[in-house]
Amino acid sequence: MTRRSWAEPYKIKMVEHLRMTTREQREAAIAEAGYNTFLLRSEDVYIDLLTDSGTSAMSDRQWAGMMLGDEAYAGSRNYYNLEAAVHEHYGYKHLIPTHQGRGAEHLLSQLCIKPGDSVPGNMYFTTTRHHQEAAGGTFVDVIIDEAHDPACEHPFKGNVDLTKLTALIDRVGAERIPYLSLETNVNMAGGQPCSMENICATCALCHEHGIPVFLDATRAVENAYFIKHREVGFADRSIASILLEICSHTDGCTMSAKKDSLVNIGGFLAVNHDELAERARNLVVVYEGLHTYGGLAGRDMEAMAIGIAESVEEDHIRARVGQVHYLGQRLIDAGVPVVRPIGGHGVFIDAAAFLPHIPREQFPAQSLTAALYVDSGVRSMERGAVSVGRDAVTGQNAYPELELVRLTIPRRVYTQAHMDVVAESVIDLHEHPERVDGLEMVYEPQHLRFFQARFAVATGGRLEHQLPKSERVSTN
Ligand SMILES: *Cc1c(COP(=O)(O)O)cnc(C)c1O
Prior knowledge:
This protein is of the alpha/beta class and about 475 residues long. It is built from 16 helices and 14 strands.
């Protein structure tokens, strides 16, 4: 059969120059940054795969929309355009814009969680869990066990384990569960989707007990793509109709529009319940801004409204996921241990398997991000022990099952040749793992430490034995 490629459904109209650096310059830059890729200057980075958040290239239509910003303090025309786009594609009744996803998470957590409550979710996300805990709640992981196994090829590793969820309801009582947070295309699991069947069943179980379900809809469009291609009965359905159906089972969502919606800033809270919406409109003025702008400029809301419509176009999402899979497949073909199946927004390298000589206390994933940057100027992100942080009860470092490096692909930004450069650098390091040094943490911030922690090259101990599996704690 002849090959039919996923090639981009757009052409390039403007270019942004990148600065090329030498290895010596990169060695100096990463040392200066405390071996934390978050602390590098972006001008020292060649290919930036730190995150797909807010890094998308906007279309000419979106840029044209920026010129139509109605910067009135109240009742901006762009707010109504955004409201119409959210209603059309996500289906929820009320829209409260926020500056980004965590703004919506903050509002929802403050509005719904009482101290001592339990908040189940299919794997934690850093900011989501933080806001739940700041409101006095305890996050409880109810994702299926397969999600913690990087090699398992389960097609829907984002699914909720209904047995775990039932056990939680039995243990704490439905009245101590303010809502379930259901993440689509679970980020921390490697961009792994939920099936429509599981979404239906999870929502039905929750609703039976009077527990609302709020979607973390950040990557719901990418999830819809996987449902279309992996779940029986969806092959002929449009992405837009699958997205609407996902949302229709739930009571509302928090959204980081910096991902699926193709904008550089923005987010929203959307809910169906009238009274909750009223309370959210009261609270948003305290933290974000009036309920018709929520911390955004009118032009940002216009770009978001257009971006939402573009995000559900079939050719767009096919090329988006296709590019991620192109990189993933190159690494798989070369024997690099990556999370399987390849997810929707990035390729996740199993750093513990990649660097067996670096003990978990020396943060193999963090170490690999630093080495990859020095090798090729590619910036990636740690998603392992540094991101998980300390155990809330014991205060000890928690060592999650997944010790990953995330190569996150911005939408519509890089070419296939860039993906080849990334693959060649990763494959080279995989063939020479001894070039990667372990790290020790020398500065640890109090909140979300991965953003600002600083490290130094670990002295000695490079060949110490790995922490035995039995001593690792899982993320829940
Ligand atoms: C990025 C992200 C958030 C937080 O959104 P921000 O816009 O970064 O505040 C929440 N949930 C998931 C799954 C995310 O990926």
